[in-house]
Design a protein that fits this description.
429 residues; alpha+beta; 2 domains; seven-stranded antiparallel sheet; five-stranded mixed sheet; 16 strands; zinc
Length: 429
Amino acid sequence: MLTGRKYRLDFTPEQGEFAERIGGACRSVWNTALEQRRIYRRRGGWIGYHDQARQVAEAKDDFPWLAEVPGHCLQQALIDLDQACARHGTWKVRWKSKVANPPSFRFPEGGKITVERLNRRWARVKLPKLGWVRFRLTRPLGGKAKNATVSRDGEHWYISFLVEDAVTPPERHADPGSAVGIDRGVVKVVTRSDGRFHHRVFARDREVEHAKKLQRDFVRTAKGSARRKEAAGRVAAMARKVRRRREDFAAKTAHTLATGFEMVVFEALTTKNMTAGVEPRPDPEQPGAFLPNGAAAKTGLNRSILDKGWYRIELATRSRARYTGTHVITVNPAYTSQTCNVCTVVDRKSRESQAVFRCTSCGHIEHADVNAAKNVLTAGRAEFAQPRPGVRAGARKPRNRVGRKANRQATAAQSTATAGSGLAGIPRL
């Protein structure tokens, strides 16, 4: 089974500078290749990974800074771009910024990565053109590394190994028949159908006020100054502390759910749509004025939703479920908070407040989130009992390799025909 292992690297100053240059080269290749794809699309053409990889290899003769970095890292950047364009479309893929996107690059060939353990606390890895690099061995590697991704988070560098741990998934969960429904909320992050809550405050009140002060200090600095860079580092350090607490909570909650239940049912929440902003409403009586639309309250709700990390909890549970044999499914969240789990009557008036559910039909009284979680579990049992015939859970549509081959042949013919139009080569970096 493939799994991830992340460790903190101990770069020398020379290795750190070289890693910055590798990340910068990968970012430039990504942005230039994306620009080239969009130019081709505007003119009715198409270009793929194979042509762009060949052009990058040719560009190394003109740009020495491309030749000094590992070639496989540049190729992997093009592969990632190709997959992103195929999944989201050329026009929805974003550019990589030097400020917003920390440097990151991947070594895709595990055969060229050598890992040696030095002692109980330290180990070292040999990376192409970077040489031997020490890293803090906080946990055993547990298998053979398939690839390695190097990235910077704040002032420190980290390495993530994709490891084949040779663990086989269990045929059945340790507690057969157990199931739980999950309701994710703002007041309580996770509410289970058995009445238990999982909650944690990721940023205390004084930390929130301190974060606001750091943000004000950052805004008051001049652009491009050293003080602005220091202020940005302090703001990022505070956000990183909160993010790590959120990751720790998600991992612990996922472990509890996956080890305790054979089936975990989540609501299929679209967090992106739920946290969309409110458009202003113009006042027809006063030109240029706008009517109150509750934008401030909606902004506060959006921040609360994003702070809880709903999707991270679901993703961590799916990852942990591979080792326990747990089935993780999602159901339609419509009316789960307005339906009585006893008499199944739907009435929005039954939910008196955030925490109180009092059915207007049968008089059943229960915690509102627990009632919603029970409805989620009921919907999950019904969906799990009637799987669609001939469709395996998690199955992906097979790739049309014949079509991809035809596209490559058409692109090669088009590149030959447009050799003099300035599109044959990759735009200058």
